[in-house]
Write a structure and sequence with these properties.
four-stranded antiparallel sheet, elongated
Length: 118
């Protein structure tokens, strides 16, 4: 199983970016999909998550600015980031709990850098 993230980059404060993450491989079913981020010198934190039924949760710091969505047919999760702030600068990681032929397992994608300039 691989999680391939894309969409990071450099943007000015107030701008927008859209991250995508596609899961591929021998996937039986996906439970959660989400995004975490890690800024230099800080711990990795949850940004947003979405479960198979569509329920979502967000970090307080991004509520109202970021929107997570998923395409179940494409095993893809998106993160629309609006009104970006310099403090959103971090490496963003895609995450998914999913079943293959074995038990539920936690997978991570490679990080994608998001840099917001002031």
């Amino acid at each position: 199983v691989q999680l391939q993230a894309s969409g990071g980059g450099l943007v000015q404060a107030g701008g927008s970016l859209r991250l995508s993450c596609a899961a591929s491989g021998s996937i039986f079913s996906i439970n959660d999909m989400g995004w975490y981020r890690q800024a230099p010198g800080k711990e990795r934190e949850l940004v947003a998550a979405i479960i198979s039924g569509g329920s979502t949760r967000y970090a307080d710091s991004v509520t109202g600015r970021f929107t997570i969505s998923r395409d179940n047919a494409q095993n893809t999760v998106y993160l629309q980031m609006n009104s970006l702030k310099p403090e959103d600068t971090a490496v963003y990681y895609c995450n998914s709990d999913l079943w293959t032929t074995g038990p539920l397992y936690d997978y991570w994608g490679q990080g994608t850098q998001v840099t917001v300039s002031s």
